[in-house]
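Hi R.,

Here's the input for the glutamine complex you asked about:
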Amino acid sequence: MTVKIVLVYQSLLGIYGDQGNSKVLARRLQWRGIDADVVMVEPGETLPRDGSIYLLGGGEDNAQTTAVRELRRGGELFDALGEGAILFAVCAGYQICGHTFTIGENDEVREGLGLLDVETRRGPVRAVGEILTTWTKPDGTTSQITGFENHGGYTTLGSQASPLARVEIGVGNDGGGTEGAVQGNVVATYPHGPVLARNPELADYLLQRALGRTLEPLSRGADEIAGLRRERLAFVRR
Ligand code: GLN
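And here is the predicted structure with glutamine in place:
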């Protein structure tokens, strides 16, 4: 079995390095002896419907509008999620999953994909800088997530969406203490980094959700990853 990871619209949502998330997911599968295939899809092309994980990344306002139009036109992402695929969305990708978001200086309201019960509006100050959050994992234990946030839009969660994590340092969703959103098969967050390179436990959570089974922790790469995490935690708390 090959796990298909679908990297959606790099030409629109690929300017913050979030494509690295696809590499982390693929490599952590391969290290476990599971075949992985990263499929890159551009606007105008048909998304595969048999992907296990779909990835959306950060991008600029106008690109968000185009991405929504293209994803709605094809409809394959909705089909795949209906079949149980996982969507992991970062920043602009997160915002477009909501009901609405705003773009440009005049804050024009745009329709999102409606996959998350969230709304995004321009906030009082642009959130730029290191972010540190605490993520409570499904087993009740916690893990810290580090990354870099860079967004003008502030996201408010409705009752159907649950926050992914609590903010320790940074702005997160809207400065109110929550970060990211989880609803059904959709997991969304603001941090770049790429966030899954900095926080491989989050990568493994997505893989477990996509595969529907528990994966053994990996010792491979663990020292290097622990070193990087120590460095980033020290930096954000400086
Ligand atoms: N344009 C969006 C905002 O500023 C998303 C930015 C991003 O993806 N980094 O809120």
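One thing worth noting: The helical segments are 10-13, 20-30, 61-74, 76-82, 92-97, 195-198, 200-211, 222-236.

Cheers,
M.
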